[in-house]
Amino acid sequence: MNLVLALTIGFLFATGTYLLLRRSTVKILLGIVLLGNATNLVVFLCARLIRGRPPIIQGEDHVLHAPYADPLGQALILTAIVISFGVLAFAMILVRRGYDIFGTDDTDTFIEEEQK
Amino acid sequence: MTVTLVVVIPLLMAAILLATWNFPKFRRRMSLAGMAVHLLASANLLMEVADKGVAKAQLGSWPTPFGIAFSADLLSAMLVLVASIIGFTLSIYSTENIDDSHRDFGFHPLFFVLMAGVCGAFVTGDLFNMFVWFECILLSSFVLLALGGEKPQIRGALNYVIPNLFSSMMFLCGLGLLYGVTGTLNMADLAIKTSQISPSLLTIISLFFLTAFGIKAAIFPFFTWLPTSYHTPPAAVTALFAGLLTKVGVYALVRYFTLIDPLHNTIIQSLMLWGAVGTMVFGALGAVAQRDVKRMLAYLLVSHIGYMIAGLAMGKTSSLGGTIYYMLHHIVVITALFYAAGIIEHHLGSTQFKNIGGLLKSRPYLSAMFFIPMLGLIGIPPLSGFWPKIVLLQTAFSDGFAIVGIAMIFASLITLYCMARIWMEAFWKPKPDFEAEFIPERPMAKYLPTGALTLVIIFLGLAAGPMTKASQQAAQQLRDAVPLTITISEDVSP
Predict the structure, then answer these.
(1) b/e B77-109 (16+ beta carbons within 10 angstroms → b)
(2) Which residue, among A46, A74, A78, A106, would best test binding to B if mutated, counting the most B CBs under 10 Å from its CB?
(3) Which of B146, B150, B176 sits opposite A42 (nearest CB)?
(4) Which of the four, A23, B7, B316, B373, has the lowest number of CB atoms within 10 Å?
């Protein structure tokens, strides 16, 4: 499972970086989405994958026993997802607005337009 | 408690200002009053920290390494105070500079969210919490930058948004890896635990943080987003960004590379040194090519970030002290210069060299208010730029970082050239022939804060002795990391 996730992360990073380097703002935005997902998976994987051991203190014990699923990692991802949701919503409107006033999503045209 | 106040006040203000959306006049006054209270709270925090050492707070009363910790040492407290001074002057300046459309779209609440983010990033003792404050800053700055929605703003906003989003992802990646390796995100706890993990692993993690914070701080080779976006919004917004946002990045670098990875590692150190040299040299060269006051200032801002990074990268306590003094000085000076540029724009309707001139005769007070920060930025004694530069240069030449020292001198000379250029174009040169519509009225709301910051600059320069002492003390605190780490081992419950 670790290997599958690691490969997925690598694939997402590669495609995300490729899209980020494109000239079209829409593709850059998609690149950001992919990179964001890759990052969340990194946090997910780093918090360790442990199945079937919820972090619940059993009966008389006062401490958790060693292999248990770490809830903090997932809490971090949840925070990151919520934040990136807001940021992406803004970025999408920005790209849309850019398309409306420049009539294109090509960043090179933006530069030409400004130099005029 | 005093630590949380500096974050809670702006957040509360943002909420109040959102609720009073329909009362613009009330909001302007509230905004001023809110910043005044914040200024008092930050002054109080600094006094407490200077008096009793590190001020701490645990949110939700969790025992130390678990909950979110706020802890302000001398560096944090000084930066919060300076940020608050900037915020206070800005709440006056913005009454004139921010036009109605900006006000309608919520300049004031966003400004307070930004202040909360900046102060939160300065005082937090938890690395993930710092990420959250960074996002807080980012979101509000995105909107502030894009307000207006004309072609330059949209292009500037795109240039700003995409690198900063990428930087957030690098930050989060680094956080994930660091958490995976150490199992904690509390900075003081991290300081203990990272010393036990393998150096090569730490290097990889630190590279993520160097990239993330490097983009925020606009260091070479990540600085190109800054000069292409900072000149587009109104002067008040630019001044706020120029003064505070990059410095949050520098602060994060300082905090991370003293506490969590204290630069024992040669790869990271040399990367940072070359980054600093590149920032100084290319920032300065970029400035030479500009024909616009705001753009030139933006490049000079980048160039001077290099000094701070160099002080950190040289890794001596004295140079770190220089970095801290330089940060405090630079926040005030660059904000004052952007304020003055805003006034030039008000009077002449433009900041491009071909459209401006003749201000020395027609606006002598403005000239003085530009002249003093200008000398401060160049580093003419006795103004504030000179003293930290001397400390940094001394370290550079006595500890074998001659290239850094040469880059510093080079960047200073170019700064001198650029500032002289602005001075000649805007002030000495007679007014351009075609009569640009000159708006003669003096907006007091703009002159007052600029004058106040000019006085702060003079004060920072004249108080060189105490300031140097305080910044060296802050550097020593960082270097020892004792205050933070001791607290942690005391408080850890079994």
Answers:
(1) bbbbbbbbbbbbbbbbbbbbbbeeebbebbbbb
(2) A46
(3) B176
(4) A23
Identity of residue B82: V
Dihedral sign (CA B462, B457, B401, B216): positive
Distance from CA of A45 to the nearest CA of B (A): 8
B154: nearest CB among A39, A80, A98 = A98
Tokens of B433: 């022939």
Question: What is the reported pLDDT for B273?
Answer: 92
Run of H or E residues at B16: helix B2-19
Cβ separation A73–B176 shorter than 8 A? yes
Q: Which residues of A touch B169 (CB under 8 A)?
A: 35-36, 38-39
Q: For chain B, count helices (H), then strands (E).
A: 21, 2
- Chain A residues whose C-beta sits inside 8 Å of any chain B C-beta: 20, 25, 28, 32, 35-36, 38-40, 42-48, 72-73, 76, 79-80, 83-84, 86-87, 90-91, 94-95, 97-98, 101-102, 107, 110-111, 113-114
Q: Looking at the partner chain, which of A25, A79, A113 has a beta carbon nearest the beta carbon of B132?
A: A79
Interface test with B, best of A42, A63, A104 (most B CBs within 10 A): A42
B413 pLDDT higher than 90: yes
Report whether the peptide linkage leading into residue A54 is cis, meaning its omega lies within 30 degrees of zero.
Answer: no
CATH topology for the A2-51+69-115 domain: Helix Hairpins (1.10.287)
Q: B289: buried, middle or exposed (CB in 10 Å: 19+, 13-18, 0-12)?
A: exposed
B415: left (phi over 0), alpha (psi -120 to 50) or beta: alpha
SS3 B57: strand
Q: Which residue of A has its CA nearest to B151?
A: A101
Three-state SS across B423-486? HHHHHHCCCCCCCCCCCCCCCHHHHHHHHHHHHHHHHHHHCHHHHHHHHHHHHHHHHHCHHHHH
- Report pLDDT digits (tens) over B267-310: 899 999 999 999 999 999 999 998 889 999 999 999 999 999 99
- The parent domain of residue B373 ranges over 2-491
CB B150 within 8 A of CB B176: no
pLDDT tens, residue by residue, B70-127:
888 899 999 999 999 999 999 888 876 666 555 556 788 899 999 999 999 999 988 9
Instruction: Compare all CA atoms of chain A with the CA of B149 and give the residue at the minimum distance.
Output: A97
Cα(B372)–Cα(B456) distance, rounded to whole angstroms? Answer: 11
Q: Using CA atoms, how far apart are residues B151 and B144, in angstroms rounded to an integer?
A: 15
Alpha-carbon torsion angle B21, B34, B120, B43, nearest 10: 170
Calculate how close chain B gets to A4, using CA atoms only, in Å.
18
Closest CA to B373 of B347, B414, B399, B341: B341
